[in-house]
Amino acid sequence: MYRAIDSFPRWRSYFYFITLIFFLAWLVKNVFIAVIIETFAEIRVQFQQMWGSRSSTTSTATTQMFHEDAAGGWQLVAVDVNKPQGRAPACLQKMMRSSVFHMFILSMVAVDVIVAASNYYKGENFKRQYDEFYLAEVAFTVLFDLEALLKIWCLGFTGYISSSLHKFELLLVIGTTLHIYPDLYHSQFTYFQVLRVVRLIKISPALEDFVYKIFGPGKKLGSLVVFTASLLIVMSAISLQMFCFVEELDRFTTFPRAFMSMFQILTQEGWVDVMDQTLNAVGHMWAPVVAIYFILYHLFATLILLSLFVAVILDNLELDEDLKKLKQLKQSEANADTKEKLPLRLRIFEKFPNRPQMVKISKLPSDFTVPKIRESFMKQFIDRQQQDTSCLLRRLPSASSSSCDHPKRSAIEDNKYIDQKLRKSVFSIRARNLLEKETAINKILRACTRQRMLSGSFEGQPAKERSILSVQHHIRQERRSLRHGSNSQRISRGKSLETLTQDHSNTVRYRNAQREDSEIKMIQEKKEQAEMKRKVQEEELRENHPYFDKPLFIVGREHRFRNFCRVVVRARFNASKTDPVTGAVKNTKYHQLYDLLGLVTYLDWVMIIVTICSCISMMFESPFRRVMHAPTLQIAEYVFVIFMSIELNLKIMADGLFFTPTAVIRDFGGVMDIFIYLVSLIFLCWMPQNVPAKSGAQLLMVLRCLRPLRIFKLVPQMRKVVRELFSGFKEIFLVSILLLTLMLVFASFGVQLFAGKLAKCNDPHIISREDCHGIFRINVSVSKNLNLKLRPGEKKPGFWVPRVWANPRNFNFDNVGNAMLALFEVLSLKGWVEVRDVIIHRVGPIHGIYIHVFVFLGCMIGLTLFVGVVIANFNENKGTALLTVDQRRWEDLKSRLKIAQPLHLPPRPDNDGFRAKMYDITQHPFFKRTIAVLVLAQSVLLSVKWDAADPVTVPLATMSVVFTFIFVLEVTMKIIAMSPSGFWQSRRNRYDLLVTSLGVIWVILHFALLNAYTYMMGACVIVFRFFSICGKHVTLKMLLLTVVVSMYKSFFIIVGMFLLLLCYAFAGVVLFGTVKYGENINRHANFSSAGKAITVLFRIVTGEDWNKIMHDCMVQPPFCTPDNSTYWKTDCGNYAGALMYFCSFYVIIAYIMLNLLVAIIVENFSLFYSTEEDQLLSYNDLRHFQIIWNMVDDKREGVIPTFRVKFLLRLLRGRLEVDLDKDKLLFKHMCYEMERLHNGGDVTFHDVLSMLSYRSVDIRKSLQLEELLAREQLEYTIEEEVAKQTIRMWLKKCLKRIRAKQQQSCSIIHSLRESQQQELSRFLNPPSIETTQPSEDMNAINQDNSAQPETSSQQQLLSPTLSDRGGYRQDSADAGKPQRKIGQWRLPSAPKPISHSVSSVNLRFGGRSTMKTVVCKMNPMSDAASCGSEVKKWWTRQLTVESDESGEDLLDI
User: Fold this and answer.
1) Could you report the per-residue pLDDT of 573-587, keeping only the tens digit for each?
2) Bigger pLDDT: 1384 or 1274?
3) CA–CA separation, 1441 vs 1425, rounded Å?
4) Which is more confident, 938 or 40?
């Protein structure tokens, strides 16, 4: 990059390399980790499904063995392995098992570790063999030998070695005993001495559990280590055979050297040097083959092998499926417990005596004294009186007229209020009784549905595969039927024993599920009670303590000034428009911009802008342009302090400082705000003119650099990032302890073996220290690869330097501190090759094993532990760590559905004209594949450099012009086929149009100018065109979506990284802005300004030579010029400051923040990576739904009316199909769900898709606890409402038929009465009396009914009812309908019209009662009431008595 900066414009180099690192090193590379993790997890799930869940861990303290009893039989007997089996006295055995003994031994181990870490190099003349460290080691070895002998004596040898921990202790005892032998002291047996520190893990139970969780199930991790070692051995042997004959190549001459070279490629440190040396040695012919060989090995080792370690560690951290739901319940219960308590800063008021605010009542008669009354008690009456007064003022025309009778009206209002309360209580009792009745009917309906399912009512229909909606619907119906034991017992008559056993097991299982529901409801109630208790505690404190919730104990709770401050502090932008009818939030056109504006309050937006402006001002500061001496830079300082003062005063007056519920200092963010404000205020008031190095003023300037961290507090998403970082601090701390333990073990070993042995004379011709004195001439080279040709007798340029016997510049092992610093640098895989070469060259080749073992353990296990722990903590914070496999799939499905959008593809034109043909051509798969091949062919043109001076460039550019015209033709055909508006709907089409337009512009400029800039523009157009191919393949689209969504979701994490980097850059300018140039601090990489410091820190984030930059910033006299007056006049560094600065930055950014990116990529990759068996809704299902949606949403608005949902559901096919013959009830439920949730308004694409997703999964397995309860309650409500609607519709039809019958009967009776009167009048009266003729309408009715058959009885003639079963069945039979099967329900059909005949009907007049009955039956009001009660009686009798008799399903109406 630095060479590109010198050769090209600076912005081009920065843009190219920064984007390259960001996309390839941080995003694309982490996709491989996501692939390996998901693949490994999928394999684990498949193996668990095949072989069962992971075996539970049993205690190692007990075991079972067969023992023969007195009767000669065998039985399993539990045996305690810790039971004493030795010959030691009881007192020694008791002492050995006591906790005091164990703590004493562990404390001795800690003292031994401290003594070993205190060892250091004392010089060549010091006798090291019998010093105080050796004597201490002998004493500790004897002590631990006695401990082992005591345990063997107490437990017996067999009982002692039965424990793995005792085996490890015995190994250490044997090794350390050999180590104290004088000839073996400070040899390879030192490993046994330093490994005693591993025993300290037993001190912390949390650390012990964590270590067991990681390394306990060691089969997978051990197998992976063996696989890695085998791979290295095999690849080393292959490389040895391939390159051992190559001359001038010493890296593969022997197997150890080949092994070290391949291991170096595995760690990515200097692997390019290995490849370049091999390429130069093999020659140009075999160079491509060798390059491919090394690159493939490097990619496999770094992208796949290291990702396997992360996958294994994550799998070890994964909980069993059986424990996850239990953990979810416990976590919910724990959250409920924590919400009940108030913070400690508020509970302080409970320590003080109660002093409630009292009020004295005035204007009372003086005959008796009234005590003071609580203000809160009186306030209720005052508020109520004010409400009554305002109500009366609104009702009456004038206030004067209402003032006289106010007491009377208030009493009337009180009586009305009490009356309403009583009525509500009565109505609630009635509603409860009605609800119980409805529940009983619903139980019966479920039993009937279950009976219909089991009776085989679908036998006559052809076999057809059910959709997932149908399967899940029947599963839910079966579960709900199994919830009611009596119904299930009644249904299960006549079944086989096998079926009954299976039903019983299902019933037991669902009973357990019902018990889990009750536990969940109890937890929810507990949460609600905890919140209520918390509110009650706050109210009690507010009532009993007058200073509670008073900012600074001065401003009143309801003071006007405080209310004004609250309004200012909490005002925010809210552009969400709600529908006044439905209450739904309307989506505006710029809703994303409105959401961004409403992210924080107006006051926080002002402070964000002020903070950003202040940070920009700090960017212009440098050691040569300081804020103390630049008035223009002080303006931003004053503005920031003034605005922050106003902000804090407003927030303190509105919410309080510390002792209020919503205080400013209620978390770490508030403390940080106050700290930043005080530092800025002190610096502004002080403004020191001279700042000495390593002084308090310089420390104040460094603390001032924390100002960008204010953004973390102001933006909620940034606070979430900080929470994700610090919530997993415990696990990160445990991993840090493990790595420090590993470093301490190897550092102690390195001090004892390499202390003083790495020093060397700077003159390569001097070997011994005695000869290293005087001066020598050193040659100067311009470049490593530049060999200057000298004339005869001419010497190379150089200068004279003194000889010095010294350690290597960057590391040594003379004490434990320096050794741990060197190993920390090696742990980052930077500089370890140099350490290896120095140890091999100055101590011996055998000691190269030391650094290789440390790198393998630290890199393969230690660093991947950080990755695994950060990913696990991220999943835990997101709530996915405790999710089962089904629940995780459901969460992935919900996230995938949020991303899904309607197809932006217009429909095919109706006619078969030119547009329709163009549409068919552009949508044909062959056309799409041809375009993809042409895009690849155009991209191949960039394999040759486009140079304006090269004649080959012209033909390449001409071919690119031809491809551009082809793509112009493609876009034109699509516009013709889809119309311009239809073409513009798709984002992919817009991108193609943009790239094609750029291509046309390039063609014009190319033929007009024909220079280097046009060639560069043509190359950029080809690159942009190449990205369009990613959306034309499923796998490439999946990976592209993973990267894009990861960038979107990691936006705030990237912003957080930049803010941290900005803080470190400002601090680096203050600490190292004037450091002299060194090995890596040069004119490109330095801290002279904030901009250059940012580039250096970005380089450190990638890990490139960060340790060498740190050592350059540690330069001390006599290698620099100190100045005690001001820090900007010295060129020395800061040793302690550089150590803390660079190590903390590298750990936070490289080990934690970048691993958060890995976690986000892994999470988003799981959204798109899933097999067809693993998906709840496949891509084909979503694609089919998108196509059907486009058919229904013809206007492409993204919303449809609710009544169109039924048409959409009927058009679905495949796995989302709803068969109306089998699942008509499900169809009704889905339609009603849309109507209920959206109040009959419009529904969006995601609304319908979300409903289908809920209906297509097993909610018992996939949904979490609270979501499951809410969903089941919604489905129960929908089921009841649909049942009510169905019954209501059926009753309306029945009443309609009954009214038609009775109207017909009434007309018959009327006509018969008229005819009888006529006959009687003719018979009794003389002929002179005229009879009344019937009306024309009645004559018409009589004529219509004259052809009908006769009825059988007077009861059927006068009042046909549903209770007459025989008549009903006879009518059904006469209607020609088929006979009903057993187990079916049939609605009563309309009876046949009944005719009458005067000659065949005998009327018996029994007096007034008969005629009164007839008249009552003709009355419509009494008719409806009697018919309704009769229908209810019939319905109850049919449901209770004839549940197993014939009849059709109610739901088939």
Assistant:
1) 886 665 555 555 565
2) 1274
3) 24
4) 938
Interacting residues of 775 by C-beta distance below 8 A, sequence separation 6+: 800, 801, 802, 803
Q: Which long-range contacts (CB under 8 A, 24 or more apart) does 230-236 make?
A: 231/301, 231/305, 232/259, 232/262, 232/263, 232/266, 233/259, 235/262, 235/297, 236/261, 236/262
Element (H, E) at 999: helix 987-1008
Helices (H), 1169-1264: 1179-1192, 1205-1211, 1224-1238, 1245-1255, 1259-1262
Find where tokens 């099967």 sit. 1381
Which tens digits make up the pLDDT trace of 101-145?
988 998 999 898 888 888 887 776 655 556 788 888 899 999 999
Hey, CA dihedral for 1031, 1032, 1035, 1036, is it positive or negative?
Answer: negative
Q: Cα separation of 992 and 932, whole Å?
A: 12
Nearest C-alpha neighbor of 633 from the set 1126, 1066, 1063: 1066
pLDDT at 297 (0 to 100): 92
Q: Is the pTM of this model over 0.85?
A: no
Instruction: Give just the sign of the alpha carbon dihedral 844, 846, 852, 858.
Output: negative
Average pLDDT, the chain: 76
Long-range Cβ pairs for the range 1129-1137 (8 Å, 24+):
1129/1074, 1130/693, 1130/1074, 1131/1074, 1131/1075, 1131/1076, 1132/693, 1132/1075, 1132/1076, 1133/1072, 1133/1075, 1134/693, 1134/694, 1134/1071, 1134/1072, 1137/694, 1137/1071
pLDDT in tens, 221-234: 778 888 888 999 99
Is 980 buried (19+), middle (13-18) or exposed (0-12) by CB count in 10 A?
exposed
> What is the spatial distance between Cα 1223 and Cα 1216, in angstroms, rounded to a whole number?
12
- Is the pLDDT at 399 greater than 60? The verdict is no
**Burial 243-277, CB ≥16 within 10 A → b, else e:** beebeeeebbeeeebbbbbbbbbbbebbbeebbeb
What pLDDT sits at residue 1056? 87
Q: Which two tokens stand for residue 1390?
A: 């309309």
Bridging pattern class, strands 577-578 and 1242-1244: unpaired
Q: What is the pLDDT of residues 324-338, one digit of tens each?
A: 767 767 766 666 555
Asked whether 1243 and 1203 are in contact (CB, 8 A), the reply is: no
